[in-house]
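Severity: low
Component: inverse-folding endpoint
Summary: output formatting inconsistent between runs
Steps to reproduce: submit the following structure tokens with default settings.
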């Protein structure tokens, strides 16, 4: 029975639906378009994503920001059974990263300049405490 579950789960993971679903999760977290060529898992070597590519959505036809031969994520099964996400190992093979200078400039530009993203979050945190470099809240 375990063999059938393993086989069926890998067949599902190879489907376009499953690869698009995982790519969608990555897109929501990173705001970058992801393509996943293959997806599989084993209890011994964890989840494997093959032929992974990331692109900026506005740059259709441009070279990908990164192309990765494979990513292998091995969970800590004991922690996972307890409901905690913990990874024993993450292996990235054959990465090819290509970041345009304009993108790097937009990332590190001061927050007041067009396209700039602050490197340190400002505003109160979840507990209502002021962010780094902000004056204490009036009492």
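Observed output (run 2 of 3):
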């Amino acid at each position: 029975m375990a063999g059938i579950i393993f086989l069926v789960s890998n067949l599902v993971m190879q489907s376009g639906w499953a690869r698009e679903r995982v790519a969608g999760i990555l897109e929501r977290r990173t705001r970058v378009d992801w393509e996943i060529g293959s997806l599989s898992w084993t209890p011994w070597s964890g989840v494997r994503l093959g032929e992974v590519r990331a692109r900026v959505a506005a740059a259709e036809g441009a070279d990908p920001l990164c192309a990765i031969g494979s990513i292998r994520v091995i969970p800590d099964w004991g922690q996972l059974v307890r409901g905690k996400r913990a990874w024993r190992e993450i292996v990235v093979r054959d990465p090819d990263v290509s970041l345009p200078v304009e993108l790097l400039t937009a990332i590190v530009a001061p927050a007041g300049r067009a396209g700039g993203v602050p490197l340190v979050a400002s505003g109160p945190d979840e507990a209502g405490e002021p962010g780094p470099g902000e004056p204490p809240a009036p009492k």
